[in-house]
């Protein structure tokens, strides 16, 4: 496809870049300490938290992939989006108050408080490596590939470098506050542009849902797939997806960091739940347009071309630029989040503990330098991904190596009051080794289970290891149990004497109801 992008569309994109950069640098004027750089001065309100959670999660590959999958194989992959509300509800109930009460800056820091330094270092190193080499570099490469479909003359390495530079420059100077506020803007642009595209496509089929149903094959709108399904078999729907979602939404530094920067617990909880409601939106403005395209543009062989074709052939001049700005927003918001989170981990988990008396200004300078270094590493590594072919897809499955034991440390460790540092560290070692073995066996064809099912198996095994080995050593101190494990009062903390519409439990129940309804409707 040779996309024809008008000068007006290019002008819209240019204006978007100028606005984002201006907003980022405007925010940077208030970034004066390491707390400003890493947590935005703990000043975020619920609206920007929710919008930022949504924007930092939606990548260009998500938009292209979900649209293409809805066109070619059905909507089952959309489960990864709207099921996110479940771990976000759990986070609002238990983990958000635990994190904020502990006044942590990084999620690995919580493991140091709950268990010991060994678990903190292990988790932090794994998070930094995957954030830069997988999340940031992968986002840059995917973004460059997507933009190349619209602008065939682009060179991959130049595009990844430009994207990294634009995201890295305002992230380094403005810190998390710049990330969150630009994310909020980017989320609005992304949602508005996607809504507009959805409306125009629906208009082209005379707002007839019957035409959509007639164009798709049987089972296209079902999320329950057989055991041998390569995309998402039904056991993985209940075993792997929620557990992987818990890791991502409740323990992943680059996601949770904006929650740690909340103004207070109430705003943190409201923001988390807003993020959960926003995660329902892609089903309607990204996935369904892909299904509608079946009744408008038939015969598209490459699913990755569905979204570009819809944009170029359906939208008028000027609006194309707006939608492309939303696509670029998805790229930028993922990259800036991972860069800021990775620099935060380096400074607060490694530099600050070894130099506890270091001046805040110096810590902030280290954070800015680290951001630039990671920006360069990700930009240089991103073009190399094109030479990996199918191996890069295997790397995505490697999350099943390290995610299960981490899930256990949080999901079991917070509720099991006898869990201790020995059990935690051994769980990380044994669980990770098991994940590596099963990953290798799967690549050799000797392990038949889908990686989402494998994740559930390794979580169960790791949970047993954690519980058994923790009983071999002394339990944690009473102070640790009281401050860093589940207590009944956490659910109701700061939620008393509020108007009904501010009660987060009401919104959590509504979000849960919406998710359960989708499980029923999409049978």
Averaged pLDDT: 88
Identify the CATH architecture: Up-down Bundle
What ranges have pLDDT less than 50 throughout 5 or more consecutive residues? none
- Note the gap between the termini: 35 Å
CATH superfamily: Sodium/glucose cotransporter
Portion in helices: over 70%
Radius of gyration: 22 Å
Q: So what's the oligomer here?
A: single chain
Quickly give the structural class.
Answer: mainly alpha
Number of strands: 0
Tally of discrete structural domains: 1
Largest sheet: none
What is the CATH topology descriptor?
Answer: Sodium/glucose cotransporter
CATH class: Mainly Alpha
Shape: globular
Number of helices: 25
Strand content: under 5%
Please provide a written account of the structure.
The structure is a single chain. The chain has helices spanning 7-28, 34-39, 46-57, 60-72, 79-82, 85-102, 107-114, 117-150, 156-204, 209-215, 234-238, 240-251, 253-260, 265-278, 281-293, 306-314, 319-354, 360-381, 390-397, 399-411, 421-443, 451-470, 478-484, 489-492, 504-521. The chain has 523 residues and is mainly alpha-helical.
Q: In summary, what is this structure?
A:
This protein is mainly α and 523 residues long. The protein is 74% helix and 0% strand.
List the helices and strands and how they pair.
Blueprint: H1 7-28, H2 34-39, H3 46-57, H4 60-72, H5 79-82, H6 85-102, H7 107-114, H8 117-150, H9 156-204, H10 209-215, H11 234-238, H12 240-251, H13 253-260, H14 265-278, H15 281-293, H16 306-314, H17 319-354, H18 360-381, H19 390-397, H20 399-411, H21 421-443, H22 451-470, H23 478-484, H24 489-492, H25 504-521
Helix pairs in contact: 1-9, 1-17, 3-9, 3-13, 3-14, 3-17, 4-15, 6-12, 6-14, 6-25, 7-8, 8-9, 8-17, 8-18, 9-15, 9-17, 9-18, 12-20, 12-22, 13-17, 14-25, 17-18, 20-21, 20-22, 21-22
